[in-house]
Design brief:
Elements: H1 4-8, E1 12-17, E2 19-32, E3 39-52, H2 53-62, E4 66-74, H3 77-88, E5 92-98, E6 105-111, E7 114-121, H4 128-141, E8 147-151, H5 161-170, E9 174-178, E10 192-193, H6 197-204, H7 210-224, E11 228-232, E12 238-242, E13 248-250, H8 263-276, H9 281-295, H10 306-317, H11 325-338, E14 342-347, H12 354-364, E15 369-375, H13 377-384, H14 393-401, E16 408-412, H15 418-424, E17 428-432, H16 443-448, E18 452-456, H17 464-473
Parallel strand pairs: 1-4, 1-8, 2-6, 4-5, 8-9, 9-10, 10-11, 14-15, 14-17, 15-16, 17-18
Antiparallel strand pairs: 2-3, 6-7, 11-12, 12-13
C-alpha cells in the first residue's frame, strides 16, 4: 500500500448517473401500534446523505480524487440539500434542475441496525433538452478526466449511455459501469461492468455450477463488446472475468455485515480511482474488495478513506476470522442486537483430523454463527505434557480459519476458557465427549444467562493422541 495515496491523489474522475437524497430515521421500535399490527418507530436520530451516483462521487473525493458529477434534481428543498451536501464533500457538480420533477428521495426507517421500511419518491422527468445538456457537458468534461463512471440506477438519466461510452472511447478514456436492467448492449464498449449476482442472473441467465457461471460471463462479454466483468457475490466475495483469461475470485473481507446500502458505489469508486491512476485491474479489485468489506459494517451510505483501507488491510487479508477477546466482546453486543444465535466450543485442535471437522460442522448446525476458542501453546503443555503441541497456536488457528463452518477463532491463554465464556456468554455452548453438563467449563454461566449447553459426539476412531502414537510407532 506504500505510495498509494500519492499515486491516487488528484486522479480526475467524471461520474454520470442517477442521484438521490438518502434520508434516515433511526430509533427504537419496541412497541406495536394500537392502530394496526405494525411497529412504532420512536425517532431519536435523523440523517441525510447523497445517494446513488452522488454517493459514488462522495466516495471518490474521500479517496483523494477530483470528481465531477453530472446528474439531475428537482427544483425543491431536497435538491438544494443535495447540492449543499455535495459542496461540503468537495464534489464539482453539473446538475440539471427540472421544474417538472422532484428530487429522487429514499427514506429509510431503522431500529437497532435493522431496516423496518424504505419509502421511495421517484418523479424525475427529463426532456430532450435535458439530454442534450448531459451530452454537451459530458463532451466538455471528458477530455480532462482520467476515467469515467456511469452509475445507472434505472431512473432515466443514462438513457443514451451508449453514446456517452462512444464519446469517451474516442478520447481514449476508460468507462466503468454500475449497470441496471437486462439489456447490457447499452454498455457496449465499456471497460468493466460491476453487477451483483441478482443483476447478473437477470441479464445472463442462471447456472448450475461455476463452469456454467464462467460460460454466462464469457457470453455476456462477447455479445456486448465489454472488456471485463466483475460480479459482486455478497457472502461469496467477488469474481472477475476477463476475456480469454481464467476467472479470478476474491474472498469476502467483511467480518460483519450490517447494511449493504451503497456497497456497490464504494466498489466502483475504488476501482475507478485506481484505474484512473494507472493501477492494474486485479490490484484495483483487491482494494475495492477491502473497501466494500469496511463499508458494509456500517449503517447507510458511507464514504471511506485510504487510511481506513490501510488500517484494515492486514487484518482483512491475513487474519479475517482470527480475533482477540476484546474484538469478540464488541461483536457479541452487535450479534445480540441482530438476534444472531451464537454457538461456541473450545479445544486444542493440535492435529486437525476428520473427527474434528465433523464435530465442528455439527456444532455450526446448532445456531447461526460458530466461534472456536483455542488453547494457547503453554496451556496445552500444562494439559498434555512438554511434547505438545505439535503445531503452534497460529498454525492451529489458521487451519481452523480455513474451515467453512468456522466463523471466528479466538485464542485463550489460561488452562480453561472459563473467563472467556463468562464474558462472551454464548447462546449455545457445545462440547464433545462424555462430560456431564455440570462439568463443562462455562456451562453454569451460560445456563444462568438463559443459554443452552449441549453435548456432541466425536467421531469414533479419531484421536490426536492416537495419531501421534501411531506415527511414533511406525
Amino acid at each position: 500500500m506504500e505510495g498509494l495515496e500519492d499515486k491516487l491523489k488528484g486522479t480526475r474522475v467524471l461520474v454520470v448517473g442517477d442521484i438521490c437524497l438518502d434520508c434516515y430515521w433511526k430509533g427504537d421500535a419496541s412497541r406495536i401500534s394500537p392502530e394496526a399490527p405494525v411497529p412504532v418507530l420512536k425517532v431519536v436520530e435523523e440523517g441525510k446523505k447523497p445517494g446513488g451516483a452522488a454517493n459514488v462521487a462522495v466516495n471518490l473525493t474521500a479517496l483523494g480524487a477530483k470528481c465531477d458529477l453530472i446528474g439531475a434534481i428537482g427544483s425543491d428543498s431536497e435538491g438544494k440539500e443535495l447540492k449543499d451536501l455535495l459542496k461540503k464533500a468537495k464534489v464539482n457538480w453539473e446538475l440539471i434542475e427540472s421544474s417538472n420533477s422532484k428530487t429522487i428521495v429514499k427514506y429509510r426507517m431503522m431500529a437497532k441496525g435493522q431496516q423496518l421500511i424504505r419509502i421511495d419518491r421517484e418523479e424525475l422527468k427529463l426532456s430532450n433538452h435535458d439530454y442534450s445538456f448531459i451530452k454537451e457537458r459530458f463532451e466538455t468534461l471528458v477530455s480532462d478526466v482520467d476515467v469515467v463512471v456511469l452509475s445507472d440506477y434505472g431512473k432515466g438519466l443514462l438513457k443514451y449511455s451508449k453514446e456517452l461510452i462512444e464519446i469517451a472511447n474516442n478520447k481514449n478514456v476508460k468507462v466503468l459501469v454500475d449497470p441496471k436492467g437486462n439489456d447490457y448492449s447499452k454498455y457496449n464498449g465499456s471497460y468493466i461492468i460491476t453487477p451483483n449476482t441478482k443483476e447478473f442472473i437477470e441479464v445472463a441467465g442462471s447456472w448450475e455450477d461455476m463452469e456454467g457461471m464462467n460460460q454466462c460471463a464469457i457470453d455476456l462479454l462477447e455479445n456486448n463488446k465489454i472488456t471485463n466483468l466483475l460480479v459482486t457475490r455478497s457472502e461469496k466475495g467477488m469474481s472477475l472475468f476477463k476475456k480469454h483469461e481464467k476467472r479470478i475470485d476474491f474472498a469476502v473481507t467483511a467480518r460483519e455485515v450490517y447494511d449493504v446500502t451503497g456497497a456497490g458505489d464504494t466498489v466502483i469508486a475504488m476501482i475507478a480511482i485506481c484505474i484512473g491512476a494507472g493501477i492494474e485491474l486485479k490490484r484495483s479489485v483487491e482494494l475495492s474488495n477491502i473497501a466494500a468489506g469496511i463499508v458494509v459494517g456500517r449503517l447507510g451510505t458511507a464514504a471511506i478513506t485510504l487510511k481506513e483501507i490501510q488500517n484494515n488491510k492486514d487484518s482483512v487479508l491475513q487474519n479475517q476470522k482470527i480475533i482477540k477477546l476484546d474484538e469478540a466482546l464488541n461483536y457479541r453486543v452487535k450479534w445480540k442486537e441482530k438476534g444472531i444465535k451464537v454457538v461456541m466450543t473450545n479445544g486444542c485442535f493440535d492435529i486437525l483430523h476428520y473427527g474434528h471437522i465433523k464435530y465442528l460442522e455439527e456444532a455450526k448446525l446448532q445456531g447461526d454463527l460458530l466461534c472456536v476458542l483455542v488453547n494457547s501453546d503453554e496451556s496445552i503443555k500444562h494439559l498434555k505434557g512438554e511434547e505438545r503441541p505439535v503445531n503452534v497456536l497460529m498454525d492451529r488457528m489458521k487451519l481452523l480459519e480455513a474451515l467453512e463452518c468456522v466463523d471466528y477463532v479466538i485464542p485463550f491463554y489460561s488452562e480453561t476458557p472459563l473467563k472467556e465464556y463468562n464474558q462472551l456468554l454464548p447462546d449455545i455452548l457445545v462440547k464433545g465427549g462424555d462430560y456431564e453438563i455440570k462439568d463443562i467449563v462455562g456451562a453454569e454461566a451460560v445456563i444462568n444467562n438463559g443459554g443452552t449447553v449441549r453435548k456432541l459426539s466425536f467421531v469414533k476412531g479419531y484421536s490426536t493422541s492416537e495419531i501421534i502414537d501411531y506415527i511414533k510407532d511406525s
